[in-house]
Amino acid sequence: MIRLFLTALFSALPFSAFAQQAAPQYYTFEPSATFSTLGISYTIAMMVAFLAVGWYAKSRVSTSDDYFAAGRSFGGISNGLAMSSNYMSLATFLGFTALLWRLQYYLIAITLSFLGGFVLISIAMAPALRRWGKYTSMQFIGERFGHTAKIVAVLCMIFLAQLYLIGQMKGTGNVFQVMFHWDYTTGMVVGGLVVTAYVTIGGMYGMSYNQTLQAIIMGLALIIPTAIILWNIGAGPASVFPPFGYGSLVPEMEKALPSYFDPFLTVNGTVPMSLKFHIGIILSIAFGTIGLPHIAMRYFTAPSIRNAKISTLWGAFFVGLIFFTTFAVGFAAKLYTVQVLNQQMNLQVQPKEADLLLVVMSQAFTPTWIAALPIAGALAAGFSTIAGLLMVIGTGIGHDIYSTISPNADDKKKVKMGYLFTALGGLATIVLALDPPDFLLTSVIWAFVVAASTFTPVLILGIWWKGANTLGAIAGLVVGGVLSGWLWFSKGVFFGFPLIQAGPVGNLVTGIFTVSAAWFTVVVVSLLTGGEKDEKVLREIDRIHGWRNYDPKRYSSKTFAVVTAAIALLLMIWSAMPDPAYKKKAELPAQPTITVAAVAQHQ
């Protein structure tokens, strides 16, 4: 009877086999035929629409300003929507649910750091970059610190963009795999070629129009299914607003998994999460957001400073809405899918299945025509971020580097170079994504570390401290890029010394060291080499802050530089010290299991 009851109870959640033996078996998601058909239909309709928009946008491209900055014509709400879809990648749409399954409460801290990054951008960088009036943050670095610094910045951009893109391409391949039952490689290549085509055709105009549309698709495709899922599992009337709709389920989660709301425990209460991880996300995620070149690029499309600020506010609102809705559906998935399968069925969830938990929950608890919506949302998320990153690659190489090599090139030649390098960037990413990491967010999170360790110190100091000079900027970019790249490939080992000692997202801890090292390097090298002497550059710094008169003492304080460098040095030392939290395994209370009766009450 028990076996028959369990079979009926979980008929909506397909799985490979029941665990009748001591060795655990693995859960496997299998979409229904109707689900796949609808997913294919939604996907084809979207791809046709995106290509059509890209083709339409091509007619608006006549100058390099049109191709690389959309004629600086995107206002507050539309730019905010485009900014949010550019930021909320497929790794966010699907990978956040998987990361919540693993990290639990700690993901709230990560989410707040993402939003905090937008606040820092609006305060520290957006107005100044828009007043500078170029196309990319690399171009700003070039004019502030010279051509050599710009070339180094473009190389750093290519590295972090590829890390970011690998996660998006992997997610695209996974989605096509679920819908079409193709192998991963075929799905990833097809998805990659589609987005590469429409970005190359339409440039920034095509990308911006599509990103606005994609943000709307993402919102509807996530919020509607999540509201229904929460309602069906017993969350009550609060389900109508998913970001807060899971509140009534909190007591049950506390009973099922007491460690869930402990900010210093994760992975079902088996791995401690020390203070370093919480400091790490501020430096890695929040500072990384500032340094992401495809986010900074959106500010150059705004027609004015005021529009750039409004865009940031709208972008933060839309990002917060999506992130907290993702947390809500991840909360539901943790409680009613993963824990039940683990504890009652003795089934284990592998990383590739964890990346699909949003789709699993949608098929289990919503009508089929709604259940297939997350497929559309996931692809829209993936395409939007891939587009932004390919655009920044095309602009960085086709405009910034090409303009340095051929300063007398006309607009038509620059646009052609943009077409060429955008397409080549897409093809290169497809090749690199053939062997992706297990978790969808792994390479994406490391891309934030690279951005925080390279662009952020140089951009912030370049805007706010006149003493930062060419040698300091180049040294900071090199140190940040080499350290973050080295630790990526060595898995956290630096000259035999493990900077990552434990934890599921140890790369965030490494960010404390790499970001601090880059900041310290920029300041110290600039001070030792006499600071910036070019008065034209110094006057520009006053101008981008809105001053009409030039004051050589403004933004020139050595005290600010020395104090921040000292803090950076202390953070470097602290991050490299052994973490007491990992000297011995934490002693945890026994975890009670979810009873079948408790689950049945919400079915």
From TrEMBL:
Keywords: Membrane, Transmembrane, Transmembrane helix, Transport
Subcellular locations according to the entry: Membrane
Keyword Membrane: yes
CDD domains xref list: SLC5sbd_u4 (cd11480)
Record GO cellular component, one term: plasma membrane
Membrane topology category: Multi-pass membrane protein
Family: Belongs to the sodium:solute symporter (SSF) (TC 2.A.21) family.
The keyword Kinase is assigned to this record: no
Name the UniProt record assigns to this protein: Putative Na+(Or H+)/acetate symporter ActP
Gene3D superfamilies registered for this protein in UniProt: Sodium/glucose cotransporter (1.20.1730.10)
Pfam annotation, one family: SSF
Stretches that traverse the bilayer: 35-57, 77-99, 105-129, 149-167, 187-206, 213-233, 277-300, 312-333, 369-397, 417-434, 440-464, 471-489, 509-529, 559-577
GO terms for MF: transmembrane transporter activity
